[in-house]
C-alpha cells in the first residue's frame, strides 16, 4: 500500500519532466537551433554516454570534496549551536556575527581564499564549511530552544542537571529541525563545491563544466549539470532516509498513525 502511494506521487512530476523533454527536443528540431546554443536532450544523452568514464572521474572528485565539506561544515554548525545554547551570553554576543558572515558574497570569499591559501584543497574546504555551517547551526539552535518548558521544569524537579537536559530532552527534540538544516546545507554544499572547482582546480565537475564552456561544448556542459542534479537529489534522499529512520515518532505523527 505504501509503495503504491509512493509510486502515484512520482507519476505527475515524471510526466511533466517527460513532456518538457519532448517539447525541448521538438523545439530544437523545429527551429533548427544550433547545438552550441542549445543541444537537444538526445544529443546531451549521447554526449553523456560518450563521456561517461571521464564524467565519472570528475564526479568522484566532486563527491569527495562535497562529502568532506558537508561533514566538516555540519560538525562546525553543531558545535557552534551547542556553544550558543549552553553558554550564557554567547548567543547575544555571537549570533549577530554569525548572521553577518552570510552577508559576504560567496564569489568574494572564494577569491579571497584563493589569494590567501592558493589552489589546493584547503581553500575549497574552508569555503564549503562557510556555506554549510550556517543552516545547520541556525536550525539546530532553533530546535534546541523549542523544548517544552513544562518538561524542562519536570526534569529539573527530579534532579536533572543541564547536561542531562541537553542530551535527554533538548537534543532529541531538536532532531527534526536539524535534518531540515542538513537538507539545505547539502544543497548549498554541492553548489559550493562546483563553484570552488570552477574557481581553481584540475578535477571535478566544476572544472569539467568550465573547461567545456570555454570550448563551446554545450552538450558537455548540460551533461555535467545533469550529473550534479542527480548527485544533489541522491544526497538529499539519503538525508531524508536517515531522518525517517532516526525520528520515527515524527513519521508516525505525520502519517496519522
From TrEMBL:
GO terms for cellular component: plasma membrane. The chain crosses the membrane at residues 65-87, 94-119, 125-144, 165-195, 221-242. Residues 59-239 form the ABC transmembrane type-1 domain. This is ABC-type nitrate/sulfonate/bicarbonate transport system permease component. It is found in: Cell membrane. Signal peptide: none annotated. Its main location: membrane. Belongs to the binding-protein-dependent transport system permease family. PROSITE patterns: ABC_TM1. PANTHER family: ABC TRANSPORTER PERMEASE PROTEIN HI_0355-RELATED (PTHR30151:SF20), ALKANE SULFONATE ABC TRANSPORTER-RELATED, MEMBRANE SUBUNIT (PTHR30151). Gene3D superfamilies: MetI-like. The lineage of its organism: Bacteria, Bacillati, Bacillota, Bacilli, Bacillales. It is a multi-pass membrane protein. GO terms for biological process: transmembrane transport. Keywords: Cell membrane, Membrane, Transmembrane, Transmembrane helix, Transport. The keyword Translocase does not apply.
Amino acid at each position: 500500500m505504501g509503495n503504491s502511494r509512493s509510486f502515484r506521487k512520482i507519476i505527475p512530476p515524471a510526466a511533466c519532466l517527460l513532456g518538457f523533454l519532448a517539447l525541448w527536443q521538438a523545439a530544437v528540431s523545429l527551429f533548427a537551433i544550433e547545438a552550441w546554443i542549445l543541444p537537444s536532450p538526445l544529443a546531451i544523452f549521447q554526449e553523456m554516454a560518450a563521456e561517461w568514464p571521464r564524467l565519472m572521474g570528475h564526479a568522484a572528485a566532486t563527491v569527495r570534496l562535497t562529502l568532506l565539506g558537508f561533514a566538516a561544515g555540519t560538525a562546525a554548525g553543531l558545535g557552534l549551536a551547542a556553544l550558543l545554547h549552553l553558554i550564557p551570553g554567547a548567543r547575544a554576543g555571537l549570533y549577530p556575527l554569525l548572521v553577518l558572515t552570510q552577508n559576504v558574497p560567496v564569489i568574494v570569499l572564494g577569491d579571497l581564499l584563493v589569494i590567501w591559501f592558493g589552489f589546493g584543497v584547503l581553500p575549497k574546504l574552508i569555503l564549503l564549511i562557510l556555506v554549510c555551517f550556517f543552516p545547520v547551526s541556525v536550525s539546530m539552535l532553533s530546535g534546541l530552544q523549542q523544548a517544552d518548558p513544562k518538561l524542562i521544569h519536570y526534569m529539573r524537579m527530579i534532579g536533572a542537571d543541564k547536561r542531562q537536559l541537553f542530551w535527554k530532552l533538548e537534543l532529541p527534540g531538536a532532531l527534526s529541525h536539524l535534518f531540515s538544516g542538513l537538507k539545505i546545507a547539502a544543497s548549498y554544499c554541492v553548489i559550493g563545491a562546483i563553484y570552488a572547482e570552477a574557481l581553481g582546480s584540475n578535477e571535478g565537475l566544476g572544472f569539467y563544466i568550465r573547461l567545456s564552456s570555454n570550448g563551446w561544448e554545450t552538450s558537455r556542459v548540460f551533461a555535467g549539470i545533469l550529473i550534479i542534479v542527480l548527485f544533489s537529489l541522491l544526497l538529499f534522499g539519503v538525508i531524508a532516509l536517515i531522518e525517517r529512520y532516526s525520528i520515527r515518532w515524527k513519521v508516525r505523527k505525520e502519517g496519522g498513525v
